[in-house]
Automatic annotation (TrEMBL), chains A, B:
A GO molecular-function descriptor: pyridoxal phosphate binding
Ranges of residues in domain Glycine cleavage system P-protein N-terminal: 28-303
Region feature (Disordered): 1-20
Organism ancestry: Bacteria, Pseudomonadati, Pseudomonadota, Gammaproteobacteria, Nevskiales
Protein name: Probable glycine dehydrogenase (decarboxylating) subunit 2
Source species: Hydrocarboniphaga daqingensis
Primary enzyme class: oxidoreductase
Record GO cellular component, one term: glycine cleavage complex
TrEMBL record, chains C, D:
Record-level Gene Ontology MF annotations: glycine dehydrogenase (decarboxylating) activity
UniProt-recorded name of the protein: Probable glycine dehydrogenase (decarboxylating) subunit 1
EC class name: oxidoreductase
Native organism: Hydrocarboniphaga daqingensis
NCBIfam families: PRK00451.1
Amino acid sequence: MSEPLIFERSSPGRAAHAQRPAAAQQLSAIPESLRRKAAPAMPEVSELQAVRHYTRLSKRNFSIDTHFYPLGSCTMKYNPRACNTLAMLPEFLQRHPLAPMSHSQGFLACMYDLQEILKDVTGMAGVSLTPMAGAQGEFAGVAMIRAYHRARGDSARTEILVPDAAHGTNPATATMMGYTAREIPTDAEGDVDIEALRAAVGPQTAGIMLTNPSTLGVFERRIKQIAGIVHDAGGLLYYDGANLNAILGQVRPGDMGFDVIHMNLHKTFSTPHGGGGPGAGAVGVSQRLLPFMPIPIVGKDGDHFRWLDEADLPQSIGRLSTFMGNAGVLLRAYVYARMLGRDGMRRVAEYATLNANYLQARLRAQGFDLAFPGRRASHEFIVTLKRQKQQLDLTATDIAKRLLDYGFHAPTVYFPLLVPECLLIEPTETEDKATLDLFVDALVAIWAEAKRDIAYVKGAPYTMPVRRLDDVRAARQLDIRYQPAR
Amino acid sequence: MSEPLIFERSSPGRAAHAQRPAAAQQLSAIPESLRRKAAPAMPEVSELQAVRHYTRLSKRNFSIDTHFYPLGSCTMKYNPRACNTLAMLPEFLQRHPLAPMSHSQGFLACMYDLQEILKDVTGMAGVSLTPMAGAQGEFAGVAMIRAYHRARGDSARTEILVPDAAHGTNPATATMMGYTAREIPTDAEGDVDIEALRAAVGPQTAGIMLTNPSTLGVFERRIKQIAGIVHDAGGLLYYDGANLNAILGQVRPGDMGFDVIHMNLHKTFSTPHGGGGPGAGAVGVSQRLLPFMPIPIVGKDGDHFRWLDEADLPQSIGRLSTFMGNAGVLLRAYVYARMLGRDGMRRVAEYATLNANYLQARLRAQGFDLAFPGRRASHEFIVTLKRQKQQLDLTATDIAKRLLDYGFHAPTVYFPLLVPECLLIEPTETEDKATLDLFVDALVAIWAEAKRDIAYVKGAPYTMPVRRLDDVRAARQLDIRYQPAR
Amino acid sequence: MPFIPHTETDVAQMLSTIGASSFDALFDEIPPELRCGELKHVPPRLTEMEVARLMHGRAHQDRHGLSFIGAGAYEHHIPAAVWEITTRGEYYSAYTPYQAEASQGTLQLLYEYQSMMTALTGMDVSNASMYDGASALAEAVLMAERAHADGKRRVVVPRTLHPLYRKVLFALIDAQNIEIVELPADADGRTDIAALSALDAGSFTCLVIPQPNFFGVFEDVDTLTDLARSKGAMVIAVVNPVSLAVLRPPGEWGSGTSGGGIGVDIVCGDGQPLGAPLSSGGPYFGFLTARQAFVRQMPGRIVGRTVDLDGKPGFTLTLQAREQHIRRSKATSNICTNQGLLVTAATIHMSLLGAEGLARVASASLNGTAELTAMLCEIPGVERVFASPGFHEAVIRLPQPVAPVLAALASAHGVLGGFDLSADYPELGHALLICVTETKTPADLRHYRDALATVLAAAA
Amino acid sequence: MPFIPHTETDVAQMLSTIGASSFDALFDEIPPELRCGELKHVPPRLTEMEVARLMHGRAHQDRHGLSFIGAGAYEHHIPAAVWEITTRGEYYSAYTPYQAEASQGTLQLLYEYQSMMTALTGMDVSNASMYDGASALAEAVLMAERAHADGKRRVVVPRTLHPLYRKVLFALIDAQNIEIVELPADADGRTDIAALSALDAGSFTCLVIPQPNFFGVFEDVDTLTDLARSKGAMVIAVVNPVSLAVLRPPGEWGSGTSGGGIGVDIVCGDGQPLGAPLSSGGPYFGFLTARQAFVRQMPGRIVGRTVDLDGKPGFTLTLQAREQHIRRSKATSNICTNQGLLVTAATIHMSLLGAEGLARVASASLNGTAELTAMLCEIPGVERVFASPGFHEAVIRLPQPVAPVLAALASAHGVLGGFDLSADYPELGHALLICVTETKTPADLRHYRDALATVLAAAA
């Protein structure tokens, strides 16, 4: 059954009365010329109507709490409920961002502890929690690279190197920071093409942005060599923390030679994805980038915590958010980190890797083609449907849509761009073996269905609130807000 | 898709580790002979498995928050979310029932205020909040009637009169209190048969249990006459508060002549039904029953609140629960009462009655037969499908099951027992007109379907997680717990 | 008009459809002289914001210190997931699952609950919950009377049973002409076996055995069970469900023959330790399990597994012929609602803890109580009253009257020191019932010891 | 192993399927010399119970008093339903709705959000949110530069804009070779119109207009809009969304021709007042709406309504060709996530408040601020700095340095008295920015007044 728009449940004069201040509008203090003439076209509904509408809408979503989400590069693991409950304690919710330090010691203690934990797991010398998302963390990272070169008077560096398999945010960020993004090819085994890299570096190289393991699901084995080449050319190494879950407690970006890293706390530290955000993109830096970190950062004087700001870090790249970033998300990450503890960090990578390699082995045994069959999977791996596409016209999209009918969210499809008909599969450590086995069964079943009746598969999904949607029409006949019939 | 039992997701050695005390069992203090030999067969699952399982199960339920529930006699209205949030403030949750009065003044103030509010809306002289459900409230009420007669040395009273339309709890309670329940017939218009009542009362009459409006959905117009007859015979009047929503702020049981009343706070005061409970069955009494109220009750000495117990009410019928009843439910009822306020109470009855009479008028216009066509509906009314049963073999059950496919919970069916193929319909005040109209459309559509293809209707529901269930098999081949295959 | 969705236009249209001129016309069958005026004692409405501020203030008034009160209600850690899921609208605002097809969530959960409770208690059948522990005991006694319908109507209850349970039992069965015989406690705080032995065979319907008992002491359940059986009586166990993760379940009490004992007939207790917050005493839930033979005597709802028209498994309420809405005056009980929401929480709670988790909670509570008892008894004049280890609870004796000591602990040290036994058990002197659960740290125990030492020294 | 479901048997079977001998073998492609040892600075794990106690304690440390701080983050009543629904697993733990068919809940909600924000701001199109207000402004400026690509790269920003927004704007556009020109404030606390008039036509890309501005003062938005347009510049409005329930929306600013003005080009601001708790500064969300002409220059996600294979309406992300995951280095922004969960809350919040509810909140805040300002200015030496009424905020001047007064108010009276302006606006002297919302009662205002009088008297 479809659910009408909230606007279609609206009637003039209806209201959730308990939610309004009792006193009617009294606007005489506002100059007449500035007053609104007609009320905005907002819905007018009762409290039950709103509760029922948004509860019903929620049931039209997949989510971790209801479905397996093997979304490569997204680390859709269980979001512990305690993280939410404890971050939403009334006192935390009520704390104003500009509250005096005397009323902030509890919150700041959490943030300071989190900084220390993140320093240790990444092997970096300093951490700033302020970036509000992975992409802002990347921005901060590249901004620090830029600030570093500038501080040294090195104005020739205009290029950022980016492997062709990188996340789209990497080149987009380089552009935002005024750099040219230059792509480096990947070799047949999924590693960076070292010769191409050697050829690309030079005095124009500001740095390289890498994620390791890469988005191809494999660990970049020559990372120390790459670090040497880039550093020798005067460039810095940026670590895209999207795949940090794969190596938590196993190997640290700082030890690999990286100068700066962003972490997606909504991935590795399991804060909720929330249907698209908020994220949190803390950055860590090596010693030489410490002066440039974005502010504010939490410092500690004896037993007292306080904000470090422009006065403490005059070379900082500055402020990236009005206050201090997504504080409530950081509290959730902190609770999660404390519940994992020292050994739990290591186990995250172990079991995420176990699940990925197990799924990879099982799918290979069922006849699916791996993009990098000679490689160990990291926390994720790639299946290519190139053969199925050729033989049956079975595409990655078809598999993705049909999987929904089997009760599984689709893997990431068509990313990385360089593998044809690609399924990037990341099971995460919180899924059990039985679920992985059922997922294999579903893929096998869909392939068999495609052999029998490809049209049926291409008509999927059949059990969702809607069938396959017309994206072309959505873009051509743009309908992006409700307009009441007049 | 079906959801396995949680036991079927279990594996030996699996656990939600964050939830266990870290220290392993150390049981040497327990004598060997008393120790358990084998662990109980409980599920062993991870936190995600439990969260996902119970989240998915929840999606297999109808509820107010998702569906219209026109369940006669159940008052399924919107349960304001604030009632839950505020009753679950950490300090309220952590308060031990035996905490000292110095640590209880906030809670007791709420309970005292609630007692005062309930006294006013019922017109009674005293209120005790302790009964844990409507049935326990009934128990308390009849126990007070018994205690009253006993205190007067009147041991001849062995009968409780109950109209034939009464809730099953009424005669069951009378039995529990050692009384014989004697049924009084209803006349053709739905009122108590006065002559039959006159014939039934006598020195053996302990009292009469009535709800007004009755379960037939009509107001008992001769209530003062009934009160006179019973009182003259030395009996007391018990008011079953199940239908209090119909008269809130309009007419008070105390003013009608009742001596004792129970209130279903989970109906009239909108605390959650919770899939079957908890309820809360506060009782109110007239002056002469004050000494017999169940304890504890909250008293006020100056600005200080305290429990009144056996010492204060030596004639009390005693304690009905270990501590003081469903305190958290009472807090929810209190929050609700404060948000309604004085005028809100009155409006509850007005709009509940408006909705019921509107639905009744619309259904009558569509050709449905009313059980009491000459009467005003109260907050509920009865449609009888006697004609449809005869003509089409369309039963109340068929309508109930098919309505589920239309996105509506069924009305109460086959109650009251004396109306054939009966639908007892109670829309409550929190539903909007558009929803009521859609409900009428659904009933009309189902009737039309039945005319076209009765077998199809009898096969309903089709869109639920299961189709019509075999209740006979459930009772004959009793399977009421999971037993692992050995 | 909080929570009312009608616009003025709606009202006008609806009244017109009804053919009524006004709201007042809708009440025209009510004798006008009965209509009430304004409700003078109901205050004007508050907005949600205003009532939230009121309630936050009142909650803060009751902010508790470090509590060592048990006496039937226990502070345990409840996983955050439990109530975040339990309060989902689909559980919170659902009705009793009479329409089974639209209630499979609640019904399957209840079936799982019944399975867990039978596993924990070692019995065959469970209902879907009662109101609370004390009222469940009353229902168990009535059930035994029905099952054992030979007209004796006499129940034997030990003095070691929670005094409030005894009061509730009395209130709830008083009208049914059942005599309650109280068994005294011996010097070890256990039920006096000799007193039970002295009762005539065939002279009583059932014996109630609390394990652990109100003092936290372990009863000699095997001997008691055997004795009761030998006298032709049924046995009802009253148990703390958490303790059953480590204690032999009532289904195996008695000497029996094969491995375990023959077991009791009915088990009941309060489910509060399984995921219900203390919350001033409720809502909690009572549980009730029994041997298969008594299933048709059980009060309350029971869920069964069956199949649908397509043969697919599904769940439904079953054996409803026992219940008041069908059988009316001949029902097994007048009970109608249960404590569904609490059972929802308990089922999720038990799934998250598992048998091992519950056992660890039990172990931590057992050992913490022993540790605190030992620490407090280091204070001069403080002594333990019974020799045996206390489960969750232990009884100590103070050198001074208990009430002023508790008051001083609360006001000056933020310690809620336990439950004063002197009113219910004057024979024990200045006795105090203390409780430790897994929520207390060694530092908490030291804080209590230091506070008590200070208070006693000041008063001495 | 918290949150890991594997049993030892599972691990053994899985390693065997993989053909690996141990966990370590799974990492055999990592150069051994890079493997790290134990993480020494990560503390050992706590159970949920232990971390709950830690966090309750830390939260309690920060228990706030009566707060009169605004400065860009406002304490408003948030209906309980908002976060009870928002934190349902299906919203909380859902991913970005790339698989539209499995995400219709989130997608429809975002479409409704876009509709509400365009209604509120009087614009044609809205995206599905940005990180926060300040970063949304930076994206708006970059968007204007793209739309107005004539190489000027100069943005005019008044000093009356929130100082933190100005800092963030600088940090985020610094690398893009855009010059920021600051306009001074006049004596009334408004943007100096003469300074804007003095700028050459064609010399800047866009003008930023805050309404109300950081001081809570109303800008002369019509004149500013007209002036900027007359000089060939685009106009970006930075607004408080609650204020738009009562203020003329940016879509109607300027003198224009037909009824309303011609309007601005882009509107942005922080959505925090629409249902996000203060929460130490985040997560909030930024909103961004614009005229239809600029939709393809917008950053961030946009949801559109379309139809499925059966012609049934449904929702999907659209215009994705603007975004980084498609266009990579040529994307409109590097933004990837948005603040979906906060938008979920805001959409429910706006549905519950409605236009009238928001207007009442705005009205109560406006009048409360005026009332407090008047009350505080009764104290000798305290004076208002600007004549105009303050919306949410007002500036007063104290007879003494602000910092010690605020410290004394907080420590001795539980009053968080406002935001000290002396660092950002030294030209205003001992200036303090105070804020009142609908959450404050007349008694609260009196409490502040009395406290301030006491503190000032003590220091005098």
